[in-house]
Write a structure and sequence with these properties.
alpha+beta, two-stranded parallel ribbon, flat
């Protein structure tokens, strides 16, 4: 079985600085890689105020 993780980069209400959101998502990616997850996906949601679109 293949297991992956989707990251959403959520920041509702702009509660955190952009760099904090990215840092937290990257830390989570490091954690799940160590747990054996095989892929990490970045979700894109355009024109929303609750998430960031990573390039």
């Amino acid at each position: 079985m293949h297991v992956g993780m989707a990251t959403i980069f959520q920041n509702p209400g702009r509660a955190a600085a952009d760099y904090q959101v990215y840092r937290n998502e990257l830390r989570l990616a490091d954690l799940v890689e160590a747990l054996g997850f095989e892929s990490i996906w970045a979700v894109e949601h355009h024109f929303g105020d609750y998430t960031m679109c990573p390039d």
